[in-house]
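Submission sheet (multi-component)
Chains listed below:
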Amino acid sequence: MAAVVTEAMVAAFQRDGAVLVKGLWAEWVETLRAGVARNMENPSAAQMATLKPGEPGLFFDDYCNWTRIPEFEQVIRQSDVADVAARLMQSETVQLFHDHVLVKEPGTAKPTPWHTDGPYYFVQGRQTVSFWSPLDPVREASLRCVAGSHLWEKDVLPTRWLSQTDFYPDAGDYMPIPDPDAEGLRVLEWEMEPGDAVAFHYRTLHGARGNTTANRRRAFSLRLVGDDARYVSRPGPTSPPFPGHGMTPGERLREDWFPVLKP
Ligand SMILES: O=C(O)CCC(=O)C(=O)O
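Outcome: structure written.
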């Protein structure tokens, strides 16, 4: 394993729901940059609008492209991310859920809203992890994670980022989105080098600062699951939706669509 995963890091991930993995993809930065460039030149139909007319900058957001962006598949299969994920999740198996690209071009002042990914997904479990990796040095435009939020009892209300409308019909099933700064919650964020990654749980409340710098902030995010993750049905279309998946509650994710990376 090129990236070092210490016992302390495993404990921090389990306790805080987020931990910094230095150099996870340090050797893969150029490959990932090439993949992001290819993705931006050929966005999928799922590419999402993230800024309202008149909001400055450009925030590119697209996902589920690893089958058509060879650089992403190479990193997913050839880097040691699955080993790192297995250690952090304390899981025998590691399965791919999806890839995600989030690019904030210089002058994109809009922060990424606070949210947890879990409620948008049709997969749930204690053993889940996303790796968010900037491909440019990050000093100000960082990812921010609320320590311990993955252990909160209730899910945080999922909303549509642009319109801020509820994602599912019954908002009463969820806790309102906290305001971590106003509420004095412990927020974890790190200065990062290209290829470093924040590993965070699907239930961890997170957001990101705007990019008011003169530099790009390209990020590649990879979502993986472990032994106990199962398909769950949600009260509406999920994000990503994966139309026609045919899975039923309680099943593991189908392996022909979501490859097992480990063992
Ligand atoms: O890159 C960002 O602005 C947000 C990242 C994020 O929310 C994620 O990777 O789940």
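Remark: The domain at 7-262 is CATH 2.60.120.620 (Jelly Rolls).
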